[in-house]
Amino acid sequence: MIKNGNQSFNFEKKIYIADTYSVVGPKENSGPLSSYFHKYFSDDLCGKTSYENAEQFMCTTAAEELLMKNNTIKPDIYIGGDLLNQIITTSFTARKLNVPYWGIYSACSSFGEAASVASMCVEAGMKSAVITASSHFSTAERQYRAPLELGNQRPAWAQWTVTGAGAALISDTDVNKNGVMIKGITIGKVVDLGVTDTDNMSAAMVPAAADCIVAHFEDNSIDESYYDFIITGDLTSYGGELLCSLLEQNNIKIKSKHLDCGALIFDTKNQHVYSGGSGCACFSTVFSGYFYQLLCKKAIKRVLCIPTGALLSPTSSQQGESIPGVAHAFRAEVE
Amino acid sequence: MIKNGNQSFNFEKKIYIADTYSVVGPKENSGPLSSYFHKYFSDDLCGKTSYENAEQFMCTTAAEELLMKNNTIKPDIYIGGDLLNQIITTSFTARKLNVPYWGIYSACSSFGEAASVASMCVEAGMKSAVITASSHFSTAERQYRAPLELGNQRPAWAQWTVTGAGAALISDTDVNKNGVMIKGITIGKVVDLGVTDTDNMSAAMVPAAADCIVAHFEDNSIDESYYDFIITGDLTSYGGELLCSLLEQNNIKIKSKHLDCGALIFDTKNQHVYSGGSGCACFSTVFSGYFYQLLCKKAIKRVLCIPTGALLSPTSSQQGESIPGVAHAFRAEVE
What we know:
The structure is a homodimer. Chain A is 34% helix and 23% strand. By secondary structure, chain A is an alpha/beta fold. Chain A has 2 domains: 2-171, Peroxisomal Thiolase, Chain A, domain 1, CATH 3.40.47; 181-334, Stage V sporulation protein AD (Peroxisomal Thiolase, Chain A, domain 1, 3-Layer(aba) Sandwich), CATH 3.40.47. In chain A, a hairpin with a 3-residue loop joins strand 1 and strand 2 (8-10).
């Protein structure tokens, strides 16, 4: 492994994203990326007795279907995270999978952290890891905001938590000959510019995304021209504009290369999702469903993936704390 | 890195626990290990306005004091976890440290996971990582159980969450010439035998601890005679007895080698702590304060460390779910 600068690590081994699997709910399946997801549920309860059970079922389904598709692989480890208190979705998925397990948490950037930790494990000598990141609109709303039954109004810059789960198989072997590799990672720092509006996650996350992109380019002595696309997690179009203007202050112009999963997953104008999608599953399903297929087809060859997270808890916000952000970047490339 | 069996990885590089730091509250400092901790606060609010702020201050203090003691080292990464929703203590510590950050979560076994992930990073090529695990009696009580002001009675087998934080510097360089290494890890699986009593964390965690110990011995073709001590996280004496009898069913007899941090940190008879200590800080402070010093002095040379965690959330318990456990083992050895 080669360390560049302060935050970036490029791998010496070939570390493959050997396969992916995405599971979404009905609203996500009515959006523009519908045809790319592997599986959808037409009922966001998935026939279960609680939304928490439904989220757990989606996450378990994503991991199990991925492992069934690749049944020659027995993963060394399962790594994942979600938004629920004590990452209970992921822990209960681990109970079902019966694979050695590390729980991770970095809010909506959890897929980025999971991919990074998994890559590090393969670089150190593991053969393969299965990773997931999941979220559910109804579990997130009642935990972070208010009971759905209240029908609270929210501002236009609020976001809609994606219901679903994305899974990936990180491996030293390219079992499906897709050729998609994680070439390197840039580990994010926690950045806090003092945002306190719990409806404005984009503003809380943008500084961390910008910080991570600046570090990635400086550490690796590259610029946006290296990549076909620079893909953030859940900033939405509104946050994407903030990001581009913040980066322009550093003379970095990513506007023509920038895409955001929160802007892509829903038809923001017609699906009543406020400014767009959010949640751990926003990046994980769009990457596992959409971008991974584009990489496999070599329609795109180099993408910088930067899932973004807001590090708040209801308690921290109620106690008057501001909301720090974090973003973890990984380079997904096909030769 | 050499994989043995299904869950165990032994490192080819020399990976040192170069230094540690422990911070505790007043009750812990009145216990039998008082003289071993690096720092204590006589006020469990640490002069802050909330217990959450106090926990954060303790965690930040542990990490900062450790880095100040070792100021020739600039860690590549900070890895840590805690019990609060969205691991907010650790994330806010990361905001202060300004070091690339991965948040992890495996309840009270978080120090074991953090040490394992950090070792994996050093094996892959990083130079050093700082890790922490923290908890606070008053933040845990009000989040997991009931407001302290209610003065609820609890059963004799309940536990007392340790107030404090433990930090360690995992490095490829033995900067202080202590000679203490992490030779290998055994990554735990989630094990659930159906315990539903949220006051009986020991019973929920014991099956996972036993599973991890059985895997460790089988994977490495060793038995308890290899170690001076086998140290669990927070099973207390009561859980320790359960563990030993569960292992005896597998013909593994660890009783003469077994110690538990939850049994050691308090004077269980006189300190009114129910059956003993618990929490992320139970293992992290006792290891960082007590056992690390014994290893440095070579009073003990080989210990198997197995912090133990119960993977519940208040929501999962209220929804009738059972409580799975997990345990992550690492081999701390000095030559």
